[in-house]
Amino acid sequence: PSFFENMPKIELHAHLNGSLKMDSIRELGLQLYGENSSDFLKRIQEFTTFPEEMDADKLSKCFQKFAFMHELTSSRKGLQLATQMVIRDFARDNVIYLELRTTPKNNEHMTRREYLETILKAIQASREAYDGIIVKLLISIDRSQGLDAAEEIVNLAIEMKSQYPTIVRGMDLSGNPAKGHFKDFLPSLEKAKKADLHLALHCAEIDNEDEAQEMLDFQFDRCGHGTFLTLKQMQQCKEQNITIECCLTSNVKCGTVKDYDMHHFKRLHDNGIRSVICTDDCGVFDSTLSQELAIASKVFSLNRNNIHGLCINAIAAEFCDDNEKTDLRQRIDKYFADNT
Ligand code: 5GP
Q1: What is the pTM of this model?
Q2: CB 3.0-4.6 Å disulfide test: which of 140, 268, 289, 328 passes with 172?
């Protein structure tokens, strides 16, 4: 295994339904559909195939890919197994601290509350099963869905935080950024903030300077992507102590960034604005956190100190308690002391 594979890692931006690796999707298909899984297995290919050419609509097309996973996790059994497999796959990549985020769904098998309870139980069982990995849950609002759903989800998040205070730590705003308006979700997010839920919001994922400004002025903890932040807005992030979650392969495959070397991570890094490397959807984008760090290191000529600095950034930005942070810091510092 490489330096990055062996390294104890921290993942702060991972959508549950996008994080199931190809092999685990196969495994899940077999477990759920048994002998009838061949039709399902044939469709796997289209799930991770991306068109080569740039296309203005590429990001929207990426969002359609999630329907495939949502089918698999539409039953309690599928959701529970998928959650376990996602955590297992991160643990196999030596991720020692994971913040998973997901949008609660309701369908004929589950209410949104049951969706969350199923995941929370799977998370509780995961720690012993997978090398003591620490897993937190961020509950997502999908901006392409209505305000009623958002309000229900915030209320559930507040309730779940009191029931599972060590796991439910925050909220996310995600979904197709071309749909919905941030302003409409403000009252719900205000409520979450007042209830001491941390906020990791997708912001400036597409070019919409005014909306990014509204979000920054509202103030939140971590910015997902931040691709189209202006330099002034990046400086504002620095002043407001907002960490930017950079997801290299995701941005390149979705076409919001032309190539790795054009990624805004460089601008953030060069300007001393706190950022971290994350996977986003390591299943859909067929990557791992180790690979993302290796790419960052190569493309932006990062040395071991820089990589160590990224880990320290991640610890500072985690939504967990100080004693957990201290323990993680010791484990990571030891790895760097032993390997330089
Ligand atoms: P889930 O919430 O179903 O567990 O994870 C998949 C969902 O996360 C997608 O349907 C989408 O709403 C959201 N998501 C995943 N990746 C991205 C991304 O790169 N940008 C945004 N805005 N949302 C995403």
Answers
A1: 0.97
A2: 140
